[in-house]
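RECORD TYPE: protein structure
NAME: Putative membrane protein
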Amino acid sequence: MKNIFKIIRADLRHIKTNVIALCVIIGLTVIPALYSWFNILSNWDPYGQASTSRIKVAVVSVDKGTSLEGTELNVGDTIIDALKTNNTIGWQFVASSDEAIEGVYSGEYYAALVVPENFSKNLISFLSDSMEHPQLKYYCNQKANAIAPKITDKAKTAVQQQVNQTFIDTIVSTIAGTGDSVIKDSDKETGSLMDAVINRLTSARTTLSTYDVILNSMLAITDLTSSISSSSNSAAPQVYTQLQLQQQQLITLQALVNGNSAESLNELSSALSNQMSQIQSIMSSLTELYSDMNMDVADLSAAIKLTSGSLTQTKELLSDLETKLDNAINTLNTITEQDTYGLLSEMLNANANTLGDFLSAPVNITTEQVYAVKSYGTSASPFYTILALWFGGLILVAIMHTPVHPAPDIPADAKRYEKFFGRYFIFFAVGQLQALLITLGNLLYIGIQCYHPFLYWVACAFSSFVFTFFMYSLTVAFGNIGEALGIVLLVIQVAGSGGTFPIEVLPNAYQIIYRFLLFPYSMDALRECIAGMYRYDYIKNLAFLSIYIVVSLIIGLFLQKPFEKLNHMIERSKEKSGVML
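PREDICTED:
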């Protein structure tokens, strides 16, 4: 341990007494910070209006227009007027379509938008038999820049939305204006369409109630008729039986008379015989009448049953219809009492332009930002900050010596691990200065958003320690090969760490190695400080990053000796080349 501190003091003394070495150290400290700041500032707000308004897009309209229900319609002119007040893109209003297209080919404009002469006519062609979709002609120069076409595509989409809104506004305004008088006349007669419907349904309900009373009366009549039929059917046999009984009594009486003297009862016998003849005649007529009555009563009973069944079924149907009408009336009354119906009524009676504005954009999106970041530059700063720290460690191992050469102030008996840790201190110190300068510049000079400044510096300092220690160990163990490995890792992490694009959109190879890289954990720790913490993610990211400290120790302490001869051979070959350091 004592030899480690002797090596540290010797390195600090050499730097302090050597002006060139001191200037180099200052340069090594500042260069990574400049790299970070320049990249963050250049990406501060590339999609904001101040930036996109400088992107030139030519626009021209040759639309001849058309008419709709007596209203002149020229959507091309409407588009031009709208774009003249739109500053999100640097719109260039040219005289002809040829000039606009030529400007795109020459590179003067990134894109061009041409409204053809039949655009308005085709826009309302759905009202005719031959419908044609209107087309805007969009020309884009994708050779000029990789990002510019994405921005101009946004402008193209904005114009398309403007056209859709203009179309709906015009159609709705025309239709609403034409039907306005009809709506007002209807309101004068019935108060409102809904009130008229409710009144009609209520009237129908009252009529059905009247029909129900009539049906009840008819059912009562059928019950009475059935009762009379039953009574008649039972009374006829009783009358017939009584007449038979009287006939039998008269026969008996005649027999008694015949048993007395013929002289005294002759007149009475003659009278009884006449009476018997009359009774037999009546019984004969009554028998015939009884037979006819039975047939009539049977027919009447069948008719009564049929009529009663039909009336009962009709009553059930009327009752069901009454129930449905009651439900409909209650539903309509409920609707008319709700606020939504009132709003709809107001909308139907509102100004046609208001209705058109609503239908052209019926949905508004309410955005709630989660971990809101105020600028694109702030969002990009973790990537460029970590990239600068890695770059700082890379130039340290490229410019400064990692081996400890014999010197009067260097202990001759220093062991391998003592030289390893003793020389690393200067790398660690310069790396920490780089991290501190980058942090102060990001927070105070550039002014990135940061909710936890102290933890932000801790994450930068810890990342710098891991990066410098890792690349120092690679260089100690493998020499120039270690430096090359540091560059290879830089290239891989720039492309596959998810610093600019989500890792999900990268090729599968990057998605596999992503979790083994150093950049993602450092960047995620900085993002926690910038936008807000989520539970223990900050600590977890630094904990994963600390695994590479163990990896660095294994590489630097245990692989140095096995590769020592290979490193010496490479150094001698470099010296013999005469052109390599």
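COMMENT: The first helix runs from residue 2 to 16.
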